Hints:
Blueprint: H1 20-30, E1 35-38, H2 66-69, H3 72-94, E2 100-104, H4 115-132, E3 138-141, H5 148-155, E4 163-168, H6 175-178, H7 183-210, E5 214-218, H8 256-273, H9 301-307
Parallel strand pairs: 1-2, 2-3, 3-4, 4-5
Helix pairs in contact: 3-4, 7-8
Amino acid sequence: QDPTPYVTPDEDILTDMNHPISRIISFAAKHGIHIILDLHGAPGSQNGLDNSGIRSMDSVPERWGDGWFYSEDDQERTIEILKVMTKYINMLSSNGVDNILMLELMNEPWVFGDMSIVRDFYVKAIPMVRKINGTLPILVCDAFRHEEWHWLLRRKGFDFRNVYMDTHLYHAFNPSDVASDNPHDDMMKQIIHNDMACGYGSLLRYKTCSSLPTMTGEWSLAIDDCMGFLTGSTSSANQFQDFGQCKNIAGRSNDNQWKQLVTDFAKRQRSVFERELGWVFWAWKVDGSASKDISAKYWSYSMGVDEGFFPRDLNKETGLGTACDHPVDMSDIILPAPQ
């Protein structure tokens, strides 16, 4: 069963700056941190995953997002929520809190869904937001789909300004990304992902030039899906498949060669992301229980800094712009024996 439902604070979010969310945003503003406010879970669930607040029990993954995709009522309710969120941003601004960078209309519509439905939703929602705040930058999520957004937006006459694309580039979920079951193949997989990270630069440039200016709003350092609770529960939407990818992780923890490869992986990803609109790492930190997971350092930016994967001061980093000039130098790597 799903855990206890979310708790609704007593404070009125549209009038009371003591609301917990407003306090967090105000704290961020005080420390110079900008925020992208997004609707992570839409009524009916736009993807059937636990990150939407509703986990699908359907045995056919292709149908997990149907609850939202084929419900006009849920789509209308989603627009009403976005209108309230825009009013909330205006309220923050009127109280001197101006660190909301963008409003994202919806997180990760289901990848197997009809993207023309998502496109039509964006076309309908954007004017509703603009009526309440005419200058607010808007972010739309590509739903892990890429080339079709060029013609999807052009055919509909998508002529909005100050609208941007959010893409999430992970190396941790597809079987072709994660499958390996011995130390040799694990390291070869990491090397391949390091080179793939640079290849994503062409994808991002294509998206920026053919659809909308693109930012990478989620990414990590993981090349497997071994982190606990990452792929859902065992009784509902669960994408995990055991290829043996998790059994050798402990052996990498104190290996300097692995540390260098992961550090290079982090740098190569950021190198291509920063050629477009930048990036947001998922996540800044994980809770106390999750931090004990052996894979946590690949999902927690703060733990990644402690591990040396990221510099403590990004502004003092050198060589980011040339990180993808060459593929991984295999002459510097000692591979485990093949099995």
